[in-house]
User: Fold these one by one.
Assistant:
Number 1:
Amino acid sequence: MDWTWKNPLPEEGRKISFVGKGGSAKSTTLAHLVRYWKAMGIPAVAHDADDSDGPEEPGSLLAWAEMLPVHSDGLGAPVYRAPAAPSLRAEMDRLRPPHGLSLVDTKAWDRGKHNSHLAAIRASDLLVLALYPSGMEKWRGASILGAMDEVESMSGHRPRVVCLLTRFKKGVGAAGEVRKELENEGLYVLKAEIPANESKTGYSQSFGTVPRLKANSDMHELAKELLVEATR
């Protein structure tokens, strides 16, 4: 298959951060996305800001990249340990490829002033909020909007935010109900969704492997949709 996709990104590229609670599939989703963007001809770099296990331990995205064979092209994009929060925006700008993406994988959502989340909001053009479709997620959406209000009041910058529903069982009504609740709150929910897949070849079991590409899969559709959203 010809994976080529007309690159819609401007010369200065775009910066996208992924946020959400622990276990919301941020790292898994991002690992697969960079593989798809590589196949589609979209250059990218990723910054792992997940220091949940301590600043000396690699976050899951960086650990994943380091597990892959050296003779392979890895995840399809270089993965770097993110710098301290005050330097995040400058580093994202410095490493962002022309007409490409500079991506951040954050740790579990926490709006504390000394972690990477407020820095990721300040640095990004687009914020992807990964949400498991449960009743609590409406509250999490309100929390991140509150953090964005805080960043905007301090810096005048407010990135576009989109919600991504993840890790749910297809055919269960909860995802649709949460989608409606979020939309009623004025949040934009991506059409693409990433359901739970516990099979041997599914997303949930793919850590440490080279993500597989499948045309028109959930992840492929998400890769295309995010490119459109990044240029709005």
Number 2:
Amino acid sequence: MTDRLLTVAEAGELLGTGERFVRRLIAERRIRYVKLGRPVRVPESAITEYVEARTVEPVRRARNRFGRAA
């Protein structure tokens, strides 16, 4: 299966951020990318992996039997 290669602008749009943030992720090697000569492309799966790795699940607390006092 081939992975769609996104431009930096498309990757930023998918993440809901700007190009600058995506370029910083690339520079810090925190996300996979493909270098095609001078242009840089980000595999769509790399964006999915980045989001999944940084997703924080909510903490489920057991409710106190009598609740909290105000």
Number 3:
Amino acid sequence: MDKYNIDNFVRGWFVGGFEPTLYKTTDVEVAVQHFKKGDKERSHCHRIATEITMVVSGKASMKGMILKSGDIIRINPGEFTDFEALEDTITTVVKLPGALNDKYMEK
């Protein structure tokens, strides 16, 4: 058994085809992400991957949809979304497949 801390990984991503990772695979990517109130991510899509995001705690807005603790959304390939933490927020994100370089910003 090995012990790690989420702070040792880039933006909370700890499974996937990147470095550092706990399990190197291109089948899936997994993250637990911590956001402070007011943190934002620009609108983007993935052309290959489906992204599933669960709000573990806090409250966020994605494309105008308000999400609270326990809410889960699935973002299909080609769908654009943005992100804004309306409170301090923790999310769990699963992206499959784990397609590297599959992030396209909305113009």
Number 4:
Amino acid sequence: MADAAAGDLPYWRDAHGGGLVLGALWLMQEVGQGNVFTKSQLRAAFPDIAQIDRRIRDLRDYGWVIDTSREDPSLDQAEQRFVKPGISVWDPEERKKRVRTAVSTATRQAVFQRAGHACELCGRSVDSLPSSSGLELAHRVALSHGGDSEAENLMVLCSACHAAQVTSSGVSEVAARATSLPIRERTRLLAWITMGERPRTAIEDIWAQYQQLPGDDQQRFARHLARLLNEDAQAEDAMP
């Protein structure tokens, strides 16, 4: 039986939002504070949200108390108890009050290793950045918009790219910039979006390695590359 206060909320089937918001409303209106629900009931309510279990777990970061068999031995492994609600995640302003959980050392190391210890937008490594800058962890989906601090939602950015990400005015700005791209670049961008990542190219990997070389080795590499290009030019000139 649902909690009486749930009647003042937007109905969960008609509400707008992701799994975090819809799941919270469902708990309030269909389960009710103090009552038990099962994973099968949750998944049946949200058949189109692949990670609804995870979104329910994320509510704990907003002060919601949802017990499993670990906290409540009377529950079996498939059951959870909705003990009490926390922050009203269906309210965008309230959602900004999320309790931030620290990123674990293991997660941080895994994200930096995945990024090759370089900015995932501009490709610069920490050694090539100004002394006042560095590499930072950033959220792909902001915490205030229901994002989390799991590795899949984290990326490595330099200070400049992170600042640009934070100050972006939203989809209208991004759409306007995409409209100005040549069709070849739009196609490339859509491929990245479809894959859910921007694959690093061989030249980006070489650039990141080059930036980590000592100064003398950088000059030596530059001369090597110049010789290769000169040989290429000579070969083209010699062609009939």
